[in-house]
Amino acid sequence: xxxxxxxxxxxxxxxxxxxxxxxxxxxxxxxxxxxxxxxxxxxxxxxxxxxxxxxxxxxxxxxxxxxxxxxxxxxxxxxxxxxxxxxxxxxxxxxxxxxxxxxxxxxxxxxxxxxxxxxxxxxxxxxxxxxxxxxxxxxxxxxxxxxxxxxxxxxxxxxxxxxxxxxxxxxxxxxxxxxxxxxxxxxxxxxxxxxxxxxxxxxxxxxxxxxxxxxxxxxxxxxxxxxxxxxxxxxxxxxxxxxxxxxxxxxxxxxxxxxxxxxxxxxxxxxxxxxxxxxxxxxxxxxxxxxxxxxxxxxxxxxxxxxxxxxxxxxxxxxxxxxxxxxxxxxxxxxxxxxxxxxxxxxxxxxxxxxxxxxxxxxxxxxxxxx
Length: 371
Hints:
The two termini are about 35 Å apart. It contains ten helices and seven strands. The chain is an alpha/beta fold. The model is unreliable at about 1-15 (pLDDT under 50). The longest helix has 25 residues, at about 185-210. The radius of gyration is 21 Å and the shape is globular. It has helices at about 1-20, 35-55, 80-95, 115-130, 185-210, 235-250, 255-260, 270-280, 310-330, 335-355; strands at about 65-70, 100-110, 135-140, 155-160, 210-225, 285-295, 360-370. Helix 6 (about 235-250) crosses helix 10 (about 335-355) and helix 9 packs across helix 10. Strands 3-2-1-4-5-7-6 form a seven-stranded mixed beta sheet, sandwiched between helices.
């Protein structure tokens, strides 16, 4: 039993190294290239506000409000959600003429996350607090596919753009030069991904049900899809990355076997798949489930007549690189020059795609109440 547990911990640590966002503050770092993720948080904010209102419609806030942000990463978005929650509760307390609670904010991500950058930003965050608000921030390294908090200790759990990452990619699948589900993928590829989602999301719900108080809420935002068909265009950005990797194989920069053995540890669910897993697991009621879209290039508006496909291609490539570089380098073992070249090719393919059709990420935001 001890050996099995140690092996499980080692596997989690290994996944942590693969799924870590690019650290630091450089041009291609996650901290500098996560404006898309910030826009997603803002789009989901009304659902967050509604969830907090419903939590305390019939009573006062606790003296200490415990919240956790799962998959917090690093950079300017990390404390953004904490700040939003505090402002919402501050406004509600003013309306109810009640005392503002103290806040305990737990920032969770995998052990190899850039927690040092987060910790350096906390003093300035404390200084920005107004009207006597007290908040105590802690970093909590660990996989959210494992228990990470004491029983019934959290009032609110928030997770944005994290739960579409699986605990691992499906193993032993043949996927025809693709790193994700495409129309050329055999049916068993989709089945393997859906099975992994069911396993991971069910476990996530079961674990959080032990950590959240009765009546507490969980707000989850994931990249999903708007149609039942898993072979649609919702993940064209990954098809373009596959195309870029195929070109590296053709130029002799990586081996075909390396590409064949790489599968993206990600799944964009359809709403019915999410609802089914929640109902079957049984610990939570669905309070709200909504959808919204954001452009691949978060800087662009739908009616933007001054569209620059080349600029957008570079911007989207930086966004994806900040997320994907560590995974790709760990698997393919290539150096910085090849990474640069790969994402130059990728930026070109994104630009060509955007000249033909707009690229959009479809997102699902779901508010769950603990039974």
